[in-house]
Amino acid sequence: EMCGRDWSSDVCSSDLSKTQDKALKKVYNKSLKKFGYVDKENKIVINYNFVEAKDFEKEYAIVAIQENNAKKFGTIDKNGNWVIKPKYEYLCPFMKYYTKACLDKKHCGIIDKFGNEITVMSYKIDRLNCTDGTCQVKLCAIGSKNKDISCNYFL
Fold first, then answer.
1. I need a surface site. Which of 10, 94, 131, 135 has the fewest CB within 10 A?
2. Are 54 and 64 in contact (CB under 8 A)?
3. Is the dihedral of CA 72, 77, 81, 82 positive or negative?
4. Position 29 pLDDT exceeds 60
């Protein structure tokens, strides 16, 4: 699974779409230490620009560039054009139309497949849940000893 930084499953659910596109295949260039994409004839279609890359799922792929010693994630189309500009520290695979995106662990929100923010980017990473094709925000009243009580999910 790929979910920003270390693509860890603790940030993203494992409920991934199994609709990987086989027309373009990611490839790694060892000398450049970057990923690109080739077509069925192994011709380079999208240059080796990415420090991390995921397979295309339908029309988009999640990729990362290196910026000021940090990986920034976004999505590209099959021509290598940015659909979602690389600004996220975490970017989870899309559940149909939405996904969890984080500028950092304390500034997360839900975005659509075009990068439009559906929620404000002000939630902690553990307050968002994306499974079964939907995303929800967990809002809780805080009880004694800072424990969550009376939680509700919205969206």
1. 10
2. no
3. negative
4. yes
Rounded to an integer, what distance in angstroms lies between the CA atom of residue 117 and that of residue 11? 18
Strands 148-154 and 52-53 turn out to be unpaired
* Residue for token pair 């990923």: 35
64-120 tens-digit pLDDT? 999 988 899 999 999 999 999 999 998 888 777 788 888 987 788 888 889 998 877
Q: Tell me the CA end-to-end span of the chain in Å, nearest whole number.
A: 24
Instruction: Compute the distance between CA of residue 102 and CA of residue 89 in angstroms, rounded to an integer.
Output: 6
CA nearest to 88, candidates 79, 75, 69: 75
pLDDT in tens, 118-128: 877 777 766 66
Tell me if 134 sits within 8 A of 125, measured CB to CB. no
- The span from the CA of 113 to the CA of 44, in Å, is 25
Q: What angle do CA 87, 3, 127 make, to 5 degrees?
A: 85
Write out the two tokens for 100: 């969890």
Question: What is the spatial distance between Cα 151 and Cα 132, in angstroms, rounded to a whole number?
Answer: 20
38 forms beta bridges with: 25, 44
